[in-house]
Amino acid sequence: MQDPREKDAADASDLPQSRASSPANTPRTFWSRIHFGKVALFVASLLLFILAITLMKEGAKGLAPLVKGTFRVESPANALGFGWLFAYLIMSGSPVAAAALTFFDAGVIDQYSTYAMISGSRLGASFIVLLIGFLYVLRGRNRAASLGMGVLSLSVTGATQVVGLFLGLALLRSGWLQGVQMGSGGVLSSITDRIFDPIVAWFNSFLPGWSLFLVGLGIILVSFNLFDRCLPEMAIRDSQVGRVSRLVYRPWVMFVLGAAVTLISMSISVSLSILVPLSNRGFIRRENVIPYIMGASITTFIDTLLAAVLLNNPQASAIVLAQMVSITLVSFVILILFYGRFERANLILVRWVTHNNRNLALFVAVLFVVPIVLMLL
Question: pLDDT value at position 21?
């Protein structure tokens, strides 16, 4: 005869779990939803970013002979090539854009060269997507899918940045944005000066002035790395990409998505790099990500705008705003009037580059030759 307790347990197992005992329905407090480790990483990355800008601002003047003499950054063309190669060197565009603003604040380069150097940093930052594509090919993944996203990122970014360069320089010359000031810049700078000036003074007590820029550059790279680590992690198969796959066929949806992802990650390298695995797994096709790249190219300037605010320099803010306005206008014109032709031209280039090793080698050679020639002009 079955034990009554065993019978009760069997009967209970056949019944659906009660709401109170179901893990999915267990009430969670507000504090239990917070990942305090990631919050701490975010705060640390923000503080390090501010410290880095302060150090780079202090050390920028000491690098004037190196920038103007050795590297000959004396014109927008030189600055464009310098920012382009500088981004290659450190595999990131945001620190180079911040460096351009500190050079401008220190009087090392003028506003037009600063604008061009920031544009160059965005061109160089897109190269990391192509590098990730190379790594995927070495791991035996599909060659066209892996390299195609890198080539597409470079071609779309290059087209919008080159047109935006001339439009932005015209905006700066017109003076329309000179009156725009970030209201909290003075207050924020006053607070950060009180906190970080003693730290800068401590570094300055045993390091030469010019080396503070290099220390700041190293710290800003660490700050971006910490910020990447505080972002939520999610495997592609566990994400909702499959559920929204139909939306990728709508250019304006992808444009907003690219802007949003880059705004959250504060790094165009991060937001564009995720395109490589997504393409390899068949979630998206090349033609669907062109608007995504265009949207990412706008909000990637948010961290640069923050750097301008920290410098408390209205002209620096005007330079960044000119970048954002010009790229936005160029992107809107393409999406509204020329998107079909723009898409076809970029896809033709991608197919040609990924067709064989000779074409790929020529494309990569151009990516290095052009910025070097610009520096020599």
Answer: 44
Query: Which pLDDT value is given to residue 35?
Result: 67
Residue of 48, 45, 124, 134 whose CA lies nearest to 91: 124
**What pTM was computed for the model?**
0.78
CA-to-CA distance for 175 and 105, rounded, in angstroms? 18
Report the 10 Å Cβ neighbour count for 377: 12
Give the CA diameter of the chain: 97
Backbone angles phi, psi at 93, to 5 degrees: -100, -35
Burial class (CB in 10 A: 0-12, 13-18, 19+), 340: exposed
Cα gap 281→275, rounded to integer Å: 10
Sign of the dihedral through C-alpha 148, 266, 99, 213: negative
Q: Which residues of the chain have pLDDT under 70?
A: 1-36, 69, 137, 139-142, 178-193, 228, 230-249, 265-267, 269-270, 273, 276-283
**Chain centroid, CA 99 distance in Å:** 15
CA distance 295 to 257: 7
In b/e form, how buried is each residue of 299-309, taking b as 16+ CB within 10 angstroms? bbbbbbbbbbb
H-only helix segments in 139-274? 143-174, 185-204, 211-229, 251-265, 268-273
What's the CA gap between 18 and 351, in Å, rounded? 57
Q: What is the DSSP string of 19-73?
A: TTT-GGGS---TGGG--HHHHHHHHHHHHHHHHHHHHHHHHHGGGHHIIIIIS--
Question: How far apart (Å, rounded) are the C-alpha atoms in residues 63 and 103?
Answer: 9
> What's the Cα-to-Cα distance from 260 to each of 219, 292, 339, rounded to whole Å?
26, 10, 21
86, 99 Cβ separation under 8 angstroms:
yes
Residue of 313, 308, 321, 316 lying closest to 53 (CA atoms): 308
Match 């750097």 to its residue by tokens. 307
Contact 171, 325 (CB under 8 A): yes
DSSP 267-324: -HHHHHHTHHHHHHTTS--GGGSHHHHHHHHHHTTHHHHHHHHHHT-HHHHHHHHHHH
Q: Which two tokens stand for residue 298?
A: 């706008």
- Residue 16: the pLDDT is 45
pLDDT confidence of residue 34: 59
